[in-house]
Structures are given as C-alpha cells and as structure tokens.
C-alpha cells in the first residue's frame, strides 16, 4: 500500500494514492468476521476490485440497465443549470467514478462557463482510473483540471478534510446506483459524513456553498428494476460472482467456487427496492 497522498507517476493521468495502509488488513478482517456471523455474508467492498469494476461497466451497457441512459439524458438537459451552482475554484470529488461518460457532460458544462475547478475521480483500481481519465486527458477542457484519487470512500472522506484544501468550495458527486448498496439509515449516515466534511465554515460563518449532487433511482416498476439487475446476458451474474474470487484472494484460500453458487435477485414490493 502506498503512503497517504502519494502521487503515482503516470504518463496519462495525475493520480494520488490516498489508500490507508490498514485497508487490506481491515478487508481481510471484515470478510472473515462476516463469514462467521449467524447470517454469513460478504462485504460489498469485495465487488469492486479491478475486474469487478470492468464487469459493472459492462452491466451499464446492457439493454435492461436503464439507469445510465436516464442519467445521461438528465445531465444533457440540466448540466448547465447544475454547473451554475458550482463555484469557481471548487474541488469536485466523484465517489466511485467508474466510466466518465456521464460526468464528462457536467464537466463540459462547467468548462463552458469558464469556471476553474479541479475534478477528482475516486475509485479503487489504479489501472481503471488511468484508463477512464484518458477520456478527460489534458487538453479536453480549458478550465477543468482532472485528477484521480486511489482509495475507498473512507479514504476520500479523510482526504476531503485536509487543512490544505479547507478554504476551497467543495462538491461531492455520487451518480449511478451507489445508494442502492445501503439501507436508508446507512445511506443517511454515509452522506452525512461527506456533508460534514465539505461544509466549510470560518468562525461559524459559511464562506462557500457545500454542494452534493446525488443520483437516485425513482423507478418503482418492479419488473423493470428486476430486469436491470438480472439481464439476459448475465453481466450482473459475472459482476456479483467475481466477489467470490476476490474473497479467495483476500483470505488466501480457494474457498469459493463460482460453479457451486447461484445468484437470485428479487423486487421487494414492501420497501420498493431490488434485493
């Protein structure tokens, strides 16, 4: 693991390693303890290794996965309105950036308004950050500078609280289906932490607007939602089952065999979500 705020020298991208040295140890501990629980499970972080990120990107291109295209249409329609709210000199941090085809629409709107900002894509894979940041390589924008943050959500939360950037306005961007990984109470706690981190006050007075841009799936059509996560090409299966392979690597043992596992998803009508 790299030390905090260690820059990685890449020819195509400016990426800062903000990973905690204890991260892998914690993931091993969480995985082992989750399997020993009365209702065994696996930490959701196991979904997001390098291969998992690629599998999920493939999911977003399936016919059934409507969320990405809906967000693209919304951003095309409202990106300049959103960009008006982003202050010049702001730091924009995207949680779990993945492919930048949606984000690029918003960044272009900010650039059109000639607002100098720094965009940071936060993700778990160095190679995936390097690949996706090629979409916004130097010269893409005149006023928007793009960087990568290599780390977890917790690492990003810590990074946002650095004294060196305390005075700058901040924007947290969370598109896609991040909220779907949490219960409502967990989601509230998760975003409350980031809201506190970006709320810049001096002597009790707010000097700049703290902004959070969050994508929420409002679809309540059970069949449509179910299909998005149970596609005909089994891309979702590949994505979910890859966590078993990552668990094997973390635990250092060949415990799970994909052929022995099936994945079953269902629409929970009572709480209005896919499980």
UniProtKB/TrEMBL annotation:
Keywords: Methyltransferase, Transferase. Pfam families: Methyltransf_33 (PF10017). The keyword RNA-binding does not apply. The keyword Chloroplast does not apply. It comes from the Eukaryota. GO terms for molecular function: methyltransferase activity. Residues 29-275 form the Histidine-specific methyltransferase SAM-dependent domain. One of its GO terms (biological process) is methylation. Belongs to the methyltransferase superfamily. This is Histidine-specific methyltransferase SAM-dependent domain-containing protein.
């Amino acid at each position: 693991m790299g030390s905090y705020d260690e820059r990685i020298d890449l020819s195509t991208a400016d990426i800062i390693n903000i990973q905690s040295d204890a991260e892998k140890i914690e993931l091993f501990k969480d995985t082992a303890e989750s399997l020993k629980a009365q209702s065994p499970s696996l930490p959701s972080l196991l979904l997001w290794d390098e291969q998992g990120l690629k599998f999920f990107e493939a999911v977003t291109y399936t016919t059934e996965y409507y969320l990405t295209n809906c967000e693209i249409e919304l951003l095309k329609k409202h990106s300049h309105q959103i960009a008006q709210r982003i202050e010049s000199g702001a730091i924009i941090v995207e949680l779990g950036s993945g492919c930048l085809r949606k984000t690029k629409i918003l960044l272009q709107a900010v650039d059109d308004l000639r607002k100098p900002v720094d965009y940071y894509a936060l993700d778990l894979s160095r190679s995936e950050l390097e690949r996706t940041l090629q979409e916004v390589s130097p010269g893409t924008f005149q006023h928007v500078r793009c960087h990568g943050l290599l780390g977890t959500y917790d690492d990003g939360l810590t990074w946002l609280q650095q004294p060196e950037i305390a005075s700058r306005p901040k924007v947290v961007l969370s598109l896609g289906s991040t909220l779907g990984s949490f219960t409502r109470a967990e989601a509230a706690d998760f975003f409350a932490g980031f809201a506190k981190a970006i709320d810049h006050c001096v002597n009790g007075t707010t000097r700049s607007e703290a902004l959070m841009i969050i994508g929420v799936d409002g679809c309540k059509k059970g069949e449509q939602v179910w299909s998005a996560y149970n596609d005909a090409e089994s891309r979702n299966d590949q994505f979910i089952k890859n966590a078993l392979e990552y668990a094997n690597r973390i635990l250092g043992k060949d415990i799970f065999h994909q052929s022995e596992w099936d994945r079953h998803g269902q629409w929970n009508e009572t709480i209005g979500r896919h499980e």
